[in-house]
């Protein structure tokens, strides 16, 4: 198994952290992982993205050629990365911001209004973690417990955020799981 991800959005949306958390979870599951960040000159509000590869085998190149899973937090991310999607790929869309995703081949699009979902649990900062919950609900990459353990472990030095982050994860998971 090898999955190639792109996480993309505006700086300040937790894009790089989201990719790093997924890479971290993969490493915790004894997978081979790569994580490469990329961001514009102006951090908050500029463009940000990162690529992640997770594989059972050694990874020959850290660069993503065909995206299996795109997590898009804004419209420019869709516009930029849609052409690089693999034929049977998956796009997770923050529909709080993105209003239209053009159709391309057999790509599955899962929309989640992450800002509204997090507003209901009173944790506006958790939209990126909510998206991780959506990812967990619509893929079989790892089981739900692995994601929760990975989130706790990643934020181990910030225990004050554990409950809010896990609530955001679970809210995203439930939103997608209920369909």
Automatic annotation (TrEMBL):
Keywords: Oxidoreductase. Residues 11-174 form the Pyruvate/ketoisovalerate oxidoreductase catalytic domain. InterPro entries: 2-oxoglutarate_synth_KorC, Pyrv/ketoisovalerate_OxRed_cat, Pyrv_flavodox_OxRed_cen. This is 2-oxoacid:acceptor oxidoreductase family protein. It comes from Blautia hominis.
